[in-house]
Amino acid sequence: MYHYQDFDRDFVKDRVSEFRTITQRRIDGVLSEDEYKPFRLQNGLYLQLHAYMLQVAIPYGTLSSRQMHKLADIAERWDKGYGHFTTRQNIQFNWMKLADVGDVLEALSEVDMHAIQTSGNCIRNVTADHFAGCAPDEIEDPRMVAELLRQWSTAHPEFAFLPRKFKIAVSGAPNDRAVIAFHDIGIQIVQNRDGETGYRILIGGGLGRTPLIGQELSAFVPKADLLCYLEAVMHIYNRYGRRDNKYKARIKILVQENGLAQTKAQIDAYFAQIKKTHRPLSETLLRKIKDDFALPNLSKASAFDLEAQMALSPAFARWAGQSVHAHRDENHVSITISLKKQGATPGDASTAQMRVMAELAKAYAYDELRVSHEQNIILPHVPKEHLLAIYQALQEADLAAANIGLVSDIIACPGLDYCSLATARSITIAQQIATHFEGLKTEYDIGPMKIKISGCINACGHHHVGHIGILGLDRAGVENYQITIGGDGTQDAAIGERTGPGFSYEQIIGAIDRIIAHYLAKRTGKDESFLAYYKRVGITPFKEVLYHA
Amino acid sequence: MSQSKLKTIKGVHPRYFAVTANLLLTGDVVYLSPTGRWVWDVTHAKQFKTETSAEEAVRECQSLYANQTVGIYLIALDEAGWPLSTKEQLRTKGPSNYHHNNRNGQQLVANRKR
Questions:
Q1: A499 near A485, Cβ under 8 Å?
Q2: Confidence check: pLDDT of B112 > 60
Q3: Chain A residue with minimum CA distance to B68
Q4: Which residues of B touch A479 (CB under 8 A)?
Q5: E strand or H helix at B70, and its extent?
Q6: pLDDT per residue as tens digits for the range B55-96
Q7: Which fold does the domain A411-548 belong to in CATH?
Q8: B51, B75 in Cβ contact below 8 A?
Q9: pTM above 0.90, yes or no
Q10: Where are the domains of chain A?
């Protein structure tokens, strides 16, 4: 993983000092809230319903055990003993006090972390495939690009006041696990016919009130041109993106209103202009980044018979069946630790749980963890021989839910329980759905299922790309939930289709139950997944069971 | 009473209004009391009978308390002095998924029962 240099540390320390000074001026009454708010937002500090919330950046979701320990320390000392891992691969602390935040940022800086650019109209934390560096289908580790973009975009003066926030995701594999088609820019690492590695660029994807699938801006950008090309994209967006209406200010609207062809022509023209004078990237820098993301020195095989262990323990077999993923090295696997125990808050981890995960990474997994956009934690490189020990430790920490990819592995934004923008609760809906299907004992029978819940139209819970999406709205002071079906955040990107009128807080669990009961009754067999069934029959049968049964 | 400019909430017209904010230093949800102090408990909030009088109080508070509070605004209350909207109920009770709010666990028993 990337290791800070003195430059990075000095920069972060300066920002902590600046935060303390300016925050004290606000506390002293020298600055008004209007003057202070843009500053605190650019440092990741929001004011939510009940308290300040600090969103800490976890670049491309990668953490060391030391960093995870520090997050646990912060949760214990300055929060309420837990943190909330988000769909941005970040962590939120929901109960911050303004006067403490300087100390929290200081503590983060001790482990090379910060909260810069986790809000505001700037380039946000660049996200990447959570199996980066270990997935068998990967062409190249996407975090190298993400890190390059992090360095390029952090405090970039031209991009500090964009028309709106800007999100970039990178995938290094043909199977998209980073939802790149729903970002302002999606980058896919590809190889051309000559075997040269470069980048396929998607533009104008997004969720929110106007969900759009990203379109291909370029099929192949050579490696050497990437920053120059992206600078051209950002320049055109900065110049022509709308600033008159925040709901129409994202780059997706620019592309939609002007068309891909015109936008591409503008970008290509500007790219051609600046390419002549664009300085090539420093070889030293590129080499350092490459070295930082080299695979750890993977251990050699030792005797471990996974199949035999699974045969001995059905519970271990169930967990391994859901949580263990193939690794590019045959002696290793990747593990997803579920933060979705049925009935728990999706994405939350207690101080004790964070420490257990950090210690497991240190003892068994080359000291590395990842946060997935699906709000779980990944141990990316695990020798197979340690699987049972890890499972047993996770069991003791209440972290061994065997539900990855199933109906209770739900993405849910904080919703109306925390968020000042939200219009309905999402966490409690997720909790009820998870416990409902756990009670029915149908999770494994249902099979692969992605339910995603947003508590408002901003879609932080990615509901548009849920196999079943739930959008919580406010109808005259009453929570109301719309359902979409058939969304897909992978390389087969699709936006879910709305079923019809929404359901009340009391009705929504029953509605989800009817959808799934219909699927179980009508599928051709267990091999036909929910998404495959939807693609075969369309939305009509679901409307029937929801509104006419 | 005069008709509120606020929409009917859950089919109920607001009966009273209160002034709310978050404290600058802690983010705590607070309400303006009859004595002009900020209190945690909405049932101890000053109840304005008209929206106009509450709006006037909001303007006054914005001038007086701009450096102690953030985001001063009015909310609608029912007959019993309880917030009408789900959002405002959650602000006063704390989140649904944990039994705590920002007052170090000092959630009022009376509030929790609602």
A1: yes
A2: no
A3: A27
A4: 86
A5: strand B69-77
A6: 999 999 999 999 999 999 999 999 999 999 999 999 999 999
A7: Sulfite Reductase Hemoprotein; domain 1 (3.30.413)
A8: no
A9: yes
A10: 6-62+85-109, 127-290, 306-396, 411-548
Inform me whether the C-beta atom of residue A479 falls under 8 Å from chain B C-beta atoms. yes
ipTM of the complex: 0.90
Rounded Cα distance between A447 and A450, Å, is 10
CA distance A273 to A269: 6
**Interface probe, candidates A25, A27, A35, A49, chain B, greatest B C-beta count within 10 A:** A49
What values do phi and psi take at B2, rounded to 5?
A: -70, 150
Interface of A with B in 308-347 (CB under 8 A): 345
Across the A:B interface, residue pairs with CB atoms under 8 Å apart total 83
Query: Which uninterrupted H or E stretch holds A240?
Result: helix A226-240
Right CATH number for A306-396 from 3.90.480.20, 3.30.460.80, 3.40.50.2000, 3.40.50.300? 3.90.480.20
* Those residues with Cβ within 8 angstroms of residue A234's Cβ, 6 or more apart along the chain or in another chain: A123, A158, A159, A162, A166
**DSSP-assigned letters across all residues of A116-170:** TTSSSSSB-PPEE-TTTTT-TT-SS-THHHHHHHHHHHTT-GGGSS-SS-B-EEE
- At A316, phi and psi to the nearest 5? -65, -40
Per-residue pLDDT tens digits for A136-176: 999 999 999 999 999 999 999 999 899 999 999 999 999 99
Burial of A14 (0-12, 13-18, 19+ CB in 10 A): exposed
Structure tokens at A385: 């021989």
